Every structure is written in C-alpha cells, then in structure tokens.
Amino acid sequence: MNSDQVLDIFRDAGALLEGHFILSSGRRSPVFLQKALVFSRPDLSEKLCKALAEKLTAAFGKIDVVAGPAVGGIIPGYEIARHLGARAIFAERVEGKLEFRRGFSIDANDRVLIAEDIVTTGLSFRETVEALGNLPGTLVGGACIIDRSAGRVDVGCELVSLAQVDFPDYAPDALPPELAAMPAVKPGSRGLA
Residues 6 or more apart from 38 whose CB is under 8 A from it? Predict the structure, then answer.
C-alpha cells in the first residue's frame, strides 16, 4: 500500500479535512486527518494496520509487545499487534507524563514496538520512548499509519510508516494570509484528561 492509497482511504472515510486547524502540536495547518473517522471503521483499520504490520515484520522481525500512547496509539497499536501475533499495551498521562499502568508489563526478553496513528512533531512518540525506558525489554523501533513530517522528525527510534505526506503546517504567529483569514478549529485529542 502506498501513500496515495492510504490518503484515498482517509478521503473515502471523510477523514481528510480542509480548513484552518490547530494540530495537537499547536501548529496550524490547512489539512487535518480526522483519524477517528477511519479507526471507527474496523474494516479500514484492519486494512491499514495489516499492510503496516507486513512492513514491520520485514523491517524488525518478531515483535512481542506493541506499545502506544493514549489516545492515538490505542486502536492502531491493538490492530497492529493482532496482525503481528503480539500483545498490545498503551501508556496514558499521569500528571502530564506518559506511564504504563493498568497492570501492563514488559519482560526482559520482549521485543517492543511503539505504534502511533499519525506523527507530526513526534512529541507523543518521544514521550512513549521515555516511558519505555523505565521498563525492561528492547525497543526495536516504531510505526505509524501516516508520517506528516515526511520522514524529517526524530521520534527517538527508527520509524516505519505506511504513508509519508508533506502537508504544510505553520507556527501560530507565522500563518499565510489565506489561513489567517479563516477561524481555527482544534479537532485533535492532546490535552484530554
């Protein structure tokens, strides 16, 4: 599956939006990927995550645990783990920092993969790498459905994506006039309690 095919799935699900959006990172963009609309469809989730799991097996070999940050990494992490025959766990925010709770554990011999839905700045990814640093096991790499940075962002480990895109994004104080003229909408999940 290539980047155009992934974006077609987002378009068909009504999940590729145009306007003025405040991304989870705080940056602004004329394009927003409302992945919740895609991940609300088990058929589309399976199609995307199965294709990504095949790339991950080729890149990293056997994976024992797929770990993702809440909220964005829960569904793709679970679905990727299902296709890899691995366990799925997720980290959640406790006093502003990601932690693995709920009895989730990683054994010393486990090969661990981080899974996320979409990467823009890589912040959640790097925070998940940090949270995993407190646990045993070996971090082999990471995965995302769409890399909005087109491979430019450092996520703290090797990243395999199903699609790479280069949608423009801007600092809030450096908007092009056409974007500044539109009201901004914040449809993302960062900052949820």
Answer: 9, 10, 13, 15, 44, 45, 48
Low-confidence ranges of the chain (pLDDT < 70): 188-193
Pull the structure tokens for residue 3.
């980047």
113 by DSSP, 3-state: which? Answer: strand
Confidence (pLDDT) at 24: 79
Q: Which helix (H) or strand (E) holds 45?
A: helix 42-60
Question: Does the pTM of the predicted model rise above 0.85?
Answer: yes
Q: List C-alpha distances in Å: 152 to 16, 20, 115, 171.
A: 22, 23, 18, 17
In 3D space, the residue among 128, 113, 107 whose CA is nearest the CA of residue 52 turns out to be: 113
State the amino acid at position 68 in one-letter form. Answer: G
pLDDT digits (tens, 9 = 90+) for 114-125: 999 999 889 899
pLDDT at 192: 42
Q: Could you tell me where the DSSP H helices lie in 61-171?
A: 74-84, 123-132
For residue 185, the cross-strand partners are 21
How far apart (Å, rounded) are the C-alpha atoms in residues 79 and 184? 32
